[in-house]
Amino acid sequence: MNSEKTCGCHFSRRSRNTIGQGLCQALSANMTCQVSNKRLFAPLAILALLIFLQLFHSCYSDLSYIRSAIHEGQVWRMLTGQWVHSNGYHLLGSAVLMLLLNSFDESHLMHRLPALMLLSCMISVGIYIFYPGLEHYLGLSGVLHGYALILLCENLSTSFKLVCIGIFVLIAKLWAEQLGVYPHQSTALD
Q: Where are the transmembrane segments (predicted)?
C-alpha cells in the first residue's frame, strides 16, 4: 500500500481527504500546544512563586539578602535573596526577561533549574566575598543575566557575530550599572 506523509500523519493516497488532513492538522496543533505548555511550565511556576512572595511583604524583609543578617547567622538569605523583589515593576521586569529568555532556549528552562539555582547561590557568595560594601540585594536579574550569558555561549558556533554583540550589550549594561550611568536601584539597596 502506497502511503504519503502529510502534516506528520500517514494516509494512503486513496483515503487522503480534507477531513483526514484537517484532523491531522488539529492533532499537530494539539501536540504543538502540549510542547508549548511544557515549555512554559517552569517559567510560569517560577513566576507564581515570585508573585506569591511579592504578595507577602514580610517575606521581602525575611528573605532578601542583607549582609548584617547573614553575619548574624541567617544564611538562608544567601539562597533566597534572588527570589524577592522590591516592587511590582521590579518583578514585572524579571518576569518579562525570564519569559523572553525562555523563548530563545531550545532545552527549556525546566532543564536548567538546577544550574540556575546553583548560579543563584554563586551570585550570593560572589556578592558576599567580592562586594563587601553591598549591604542589601534582591531580585532575579543577576540570575537572568547569567541565564542570558549561558544561552549566548551555547550559540557561539551558530551565529558568532550576533553572540558577540549580545555579550557586548550584556557587559556594557552591567558596566554602566556599576558606574552609575544606568542606575539599577531596585536590586542593590544600600
A: 40-63, 83-101, 113-131
